[in-house]
């Protein structure tokens, strides 16, 4: 295995943790290399009970995560096979740009990990243009009357119920998509990209983050006036509960937005959310899928929430000093240790992904599965813990 080891060891990590994380990262790269010919040009969507992938049927919000893993593996090894496999997916992403019905707030998930990654890794001009086009479409989803990026798009003129559901709605996940706008601002100097990203982030802090530092999954505004109406859930247990992956999206998103913009309120919000997650996670090493789940409900854990949160905590640790930095690193290390102990599939024969026990959408029955976003953020968290600092967000 050839991973550029001079990039990975940092003083903050103990030798044992660094060795464990490096070994896990190497297993991820081995798994990716083994599975490339099996997966081909398909994009993983969710795992089966046998830890095999079910693939996206056309454009999907998760389609970029496997590309992101391939670009990270290329960065780690220098092997052009990983870059070639990621680049070969370009037609899938072009389809999103060419069809309005496929475009929503998830453009950041899709294009940061595909087109922006390719541009940063190779300098390909077409990839840059695709990233900027996607950023423009994402910016156009901003609703100035309420100060938010509308999450989902209507399915079509015949589905009035869905159109009513998505109108005026923002969601926690979008915080992680803002990086595409920040990249576009830094790339072009066009201030509107930054203004929209920060405008949405501040609306998120004001309405999605509750006074007790837990978070709603979604928030609804009057579509016409922009007046704030109510917080709701879509994938959590209840409107007043705290969906663990939503809290994780927000921690990562606010920490990252602070690092890329220097806006102090982004850091303050990330700290509050992280402290609450630390409290609610308690002695668990992998969070339950909803932090306010009644004891009478099945206690499914969500490995993807742990991976996303750990990666965000490593960002937060690097943005603060001394004891506070150690606090967030320790929490992140504990989450990764839990993933390695309870969810790690990288050494499991026959498994196609990295992590089991992901809770995609518990109310819809999608539980205990491999998830491509869990896998991507697991790889990202391992790399951040080992001192890597080149990513695509």
UniProtKB/TrEMBL annotation:
<dbReference type="InterPro" id="IPR012341">
    <property type="entry name" value="6hp_glycosidase-like_sf"/>
</dbReference>
<protein>
    <recommendedName>
        <fullName>Glycosyl hydrolase</fullName>
    </recommendedName>
</protein>
<dbReference type="GO" id="GO:0000272">
    <property type="term" value="P:polysaccharide catabolic process"/>
</dbReference>
<dbReference type="GO" id="GO:0052757">
    <property type="term" value="F:chondroitin hydrolase activity"/>
</dbReference>
<dbReference type="InterPro" id="IPR008928">
    <property type="entry name" value="6-hairpin_glycosidase_sf"/>
</dbReference>
<dbReference type="InterPro" id="IPR052369">
    <property type="entry name" value="UG_Glycosaminoglycan_Hydrolase"/>
</dbReference>
<comment type="similarity">
    <text>Belongs to the glycosyl hydrolase 88 family.</text>
</comment>
<keyword id="KW-0378">Hydrolase</keyword>
């Amino acid at each position: 295995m050839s991973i550029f080891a001079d990039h990975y060891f940092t003083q903050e990590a103990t030798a044992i943790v660094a060795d464990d994380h490096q070994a896990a990262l190497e297993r991820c790269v081995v798994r990716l290399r083994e599975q490339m010919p099996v997966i081909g040009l398909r994009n993983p969507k969710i795992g089966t009970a046998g830890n095999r992938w079910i693939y996206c049927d056309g454009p999907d919000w998760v389609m970029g995560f496997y590309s992101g893993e391939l670009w990270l593996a290329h960065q780690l090894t220098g092997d052009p096979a990983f870059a070639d496999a990621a680049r070969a997916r370009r037609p899938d992403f072009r389809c999103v740009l060419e069809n309005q019905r496929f475009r929503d707030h998830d453009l950041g998930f899709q294009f940061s990990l595909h087109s922006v990654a390719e541009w940063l890794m190779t300098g390909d001009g077409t990839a840059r243009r695709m990233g900027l086009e996607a950023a423009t479409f994402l910016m156009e989803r901003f609703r100035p009357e309420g100060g938010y990026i509308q999450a989902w798009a209507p399915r079509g003129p015949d589905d009035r119920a869905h159109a009513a559901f998505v109108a005026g709605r923002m969601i926690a996940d979008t915080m992680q998509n803002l990086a595409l706008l920040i990249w576009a601002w830094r790339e072009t100097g066009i201030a509107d990209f930054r203004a929209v990203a920060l405008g949405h982030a501040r609306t998120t802090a004001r309405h999605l983050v509750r006074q007790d530092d837990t978070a709603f999954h979604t928030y609804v505004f009057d579509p016409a006036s922009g007046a704030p109406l109510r917080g709701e859930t879509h994938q959590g247990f209840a409107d007043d509960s705290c969906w663990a992956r939503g809290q994780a999206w927000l921690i990562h998103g606010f920490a990252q937005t602070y690092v890329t913009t220097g806006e102090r309120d982004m850091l303050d919000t990330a700290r509050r959310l992280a402290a609450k997650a630390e409290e609610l996670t308690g002695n668990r090493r992998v969070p339950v899928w909803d932090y306010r789940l009644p004891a009478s409900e099945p206690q499914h854990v969500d490995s993807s929430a742990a991976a996303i949160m750990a990666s965000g905590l490593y960002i937060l640790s690097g943005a603060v000093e001394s004891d506070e930095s150690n606090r967030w690193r320790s929490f992140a290390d504990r989450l990764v240790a839990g993933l390695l102990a309870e969810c790690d599939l990288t050494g499991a024969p026959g498994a196609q992904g990295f992590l089991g026990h992901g809770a995609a959408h518990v109310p819809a029955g999608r539980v205990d599965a491999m998830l491509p976003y869990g896998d991507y953020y697991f790889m990202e968290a391992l790399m951040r813990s080992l001192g890597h600092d080149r990513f695509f967000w």
